[in-house]
Amino acid sequence: MLFDLDGTLIDTRPGIQSAVRAALMDVIGDAGGIDQANLSLPLDAMIRSAAPSATPDMQERLAIAFREHYDADDWKTAEVYPHAEESLRTLRSAGVRAFVVTNKRERAAQRLLEYFHLADYFEGVVGQPDHGTPTPKAELADRVLDGMDVDPASIAVVGDSDQDAEMAASRGMTFIAFTSGAGPLSQAGEGRNRVEMDSLSDVAAFVVEGKLWRKS
Q: How many CA atoms lie within 13 A of 94 on its CB side?
């Protein structure tokens, strides 16, 4: 299973919004763009969504300011979604291999997982670099899957955004849409490669009971 992090396992919205707001005030002097910020995007793209008219130099300064605020204290305001650890423990006991694939900076993602005692449930964490061009999520998934002799039909992606859905579709994996997450997540009915659930306990039960593989 490939898990998204923000909005799926951990609700990081309060800290991200706080850091974006502070960065906008530091650099622009106006935090109005916070309402249009897409928090599911990699950092640079998220900054552009909050300040689309800012110059490239200003956007770079906004990203730097965001990191300073978020890494100082704001990241600690996150909260684990209900039943996350219990569900991960159930999956591990059933022999399910789990990885995190996230648009968050990889080091920041690892820090959150360790802080909330979730790191031991995952074989690996793949995220964005601290600097440079962000990697599409499908390519991040490839970093997990390369060298593994695994049928994509036996893999589930658990996420709360359209980017997670696209990652799953691009490799023929099942998408478990976590509808209690942060999104944005387009509305879609259940299909052969998509199911929608609002509880991580239900996600774990769906997989452990074998419904994922019967569905495929």
A: 16
Do 68 and 152 share a domain, yes or no?
no
Q: Are residues 35 and 140 in the same domain?
A: no
Residues 199, 166, 162, 108: is their CA dihedral positive or negative? positive
Say which DSSP state 40 is in: T
What's the rounded Cα separation, in Å, for the pair 50 and 39? 9
- Asked whether the beta carbons of 160 and 4 are under 8 A apart, the reply is yes
Beta strands 2-3 and 156-159: pairing type? Answer: parallel
Q: Is 156 helix (H, G, I), strand (E, B) or coil?
A: strand
Structure tokens at 39: 């928090």
Structural domains in the chain (count): 2
The runs of H, that is alpha helices, within the chain are: 13-27, 43-50, 56-72, 84-93, 106-115, 137-145, 162-170, 200-208, 211-215
Residue 150 to residues 2, 65, 84, 124, 166, Cα–Cα distance (Å): 13, 41, 25, 16, 19
Instruction: Give tens-digit pLDDT for 149-168.
Output: 888 888 999 999 988 999 99
Check: CB of residue 165 under 8 Å from CB of residue 48.
no
pLDDT tens sequence across 156-203: 999 999 889 999 998 899 999 998 887 778 876 555 588 999 999 999
Q: Tell me, yes or no, whether 69 and 90 share the same domain.
A: no
